Amino acid sequence: MASQLRLRDLLASLANSDCDFVVIGSSALVLQGWDVVPSDLDLFVPSDEVDGIRQLLEVGEHQAVWVRDGEARRVEVETDRGPVDLYLDVSGDLTYERVERDAVAVMIGADELSVKVGSLAHVRDMRAAVGRPPVPADAVRPAEKGGAPRVVAIDGPAGAGKSTVTRSVARSLGFTYLDTGAMYRSVTLVVLEQRADPDDHARIGEIADSTEIDFDGERVLIGHRDVTSLIRSAEVTKATPHIAAYPEVRAAMVKRQRQLFSQGGYVAEGRDTGTVVAPDAPLKIYLTATPEERARRRSLETHELLADVLAAIEERDRLDSVRELSALKPAKDAVVLDTTGRSIDEVVEEIVKLARDRGIV
Ligand code: DC
Questions:
Q1: Which of 152, 201, 209, 310 gets the highest tally of CB atoms within 10 A of its CB?
Q2: Is the CB–ligand 1 distance for residue 159 below 6 Å?
């Protein structure tokens, strides 16, 4: 009686099958007598990756390889018949929506390796049978799409109340707050400090790649240097839209944001979080307010002249919306909230309720 999962054989047979996707669900293992820890593991693998995985499998009986954003990662699955290592590539063009629509579930048998093909609904039923939510908490989502389990994306123009609202939502949900604007500001600060030529794409890209941005609560750090106030200077604020428009800069920031999001539990504010960075985020909010209201709030905060603030806001809106890459706009499935005349508490409450209704917390 075989007591091991012969993944090599499994994947070999998958390579010859015509399924679009492979879903390997731990609940399938549980239902068939395996004691799986961590129990909430599901991996979605596009079928065109299977052949590559199969080749990687040639190195050993029980291994597959999962490469994410160029990073190999091992997923250890403990079974009562010994450990199984899964290393799988999920970097394909795969979204939960596509899996919902087209996936084929593959179950791994108990005594002998057996492959059964069913539907995703079947996997969901099996999950329900063992008391699990329909979508696994630590399901691996495709890196390329910036899939983001347990991420609330809050986008919108400057002055819509994003920072206050996002911080407060993060606190209410017990999630980590991420200020993506601070990341673009940090790169701009380094560009200005190094007096780099703002037209030198390659140099600006290098700076974006090499700037180590970290967050420590409310503090923003570059390396170990606290730049929290420096990145809010008028000079940095003015130069950031130009630097943020560089594709090299956006690619570096988006990659970093996706790495953070992959851990889950984030409420992030930005301009393209719901459209580009995490299009699979289960809750996307587009926060807005009239330019006059936004200028009024900003000038109360900074004591600058209302007319000057209004002109600056309109100019930044224009730059952020006309840029080709990641232009400021609501995601198709975003909830658009106009905060004009509404209190922060009211808006926060509405977002927290949406997050709870969608089962994010
Ligand atoms: O939100 P903020 O004012 O700190 O943003 C600073 C600048 O960075 C602003 O011009 C827009 C830009 N930005 C961006 O392009 N993409 C983001 N995700 C966040 C900010």
A1: 152
A2: no
